Amino acid sequence: MAKSSSKTTKTNTTKARAKTKAKTSASKPAQRVTRIKASESAAPRVSVDVPQPATESTATPASKPRSQRATNVDGGVTRRSPWRAIADYFTGAWYELRQVRWPNRSQTWQMTGALLGFTAFFVVVILLLDAGANYLFNHLLGR
User: Fold this and answer.
1) What confidence score (pLDDT) does residue 137 get?
2) For residues 134 and 129, what is the distance between their CA atoms, to the nearest angstrom?
3) Distance between alpha carbon 21 and the CA centroid of its chain, in Å?
4) Which of 28, 27, 21, 23 is CA-nearest to residue 56?
5) Mean of the per-residue pLDDT values for the chain?
6) Cα distance between residue 85 and residue 95, in whole Å
C-alpha cells in the first residue's frame, strides 16, 4: 500500500509542476528591446520583440523525440536542403553587414595612421629587446 501511495504523490507532484510551468511560460509576455540604428542624423528607435526561450511545448524539432518529429512519406525524418542552409547563411551574413556602422574616409585614415604608428612603435621595442638580448649573451659568453 505504501508504494502506490508514494507513486501517486510523485505523479501528483509532477503534474502540479507541469501545470505551474505551463502557466508561467504562457503568462510571460515577450520582452521588448529597443535597437538604435546608427546614422549621421538623429537615430530613429526601432522596437523589436525578443522571443522567450523555448519551453517544452515549443521545443525545436531536433530536441523532440524521434516519434514526434516531422516525417516524410517513407517514415524518415525530413531534412533541410544544404542549398537552403547556405542561402540562409548568406542572408544572415548580409543582414549583419547592414547593421555595421561603417567608418567614413577621415575615420579610416585616422585608424590606418594609428595602426601604422603602433606597428612602428612595437617594431622599435622588439628591435631594442633583440639588441639588448644579443649584447647580454655576447657579454656572458665572452665574445
Assistant:
1) 94
2) 8
3) 26
4) 21
5) 75
6) 15
CA angle 40, 46, 49 (to 5 degrees): 150
Rounded to whole angstroms, the Cα distance separating 19 from 34 reads 33
Global pTM? 0.37
pLDDT at 90: 95
The conformation of residue 64, written as its DSSP 8-state character, comes to: S
Helix ranges (H only) for the chain are 2-27, 82-99, 105-141
Model pLDDT, residue 124: 98
pLDDT-based confidence at 131, cuts 50/70/90?
Answer: very high
Single-letter residue type at 86? I
Contact 30, 39 (CB under 8 A): no
Place of cell 551574413: 93
The answer to whether the CB of 30 falls within 8 A of the CB of 51 is: yes
Rounded Cα–Cα distance for residues 8 and 94 (Å): 55
Residue listed under C-alpha cell 515577450? 30
Give the residue from 72, 53, 73 showing the smallest Cα distance to 63.
53
Q: Is the pLDDT of residue 69 over 60?
A: no
Phi, psi of 91 (to 5 degrees): -65, -45
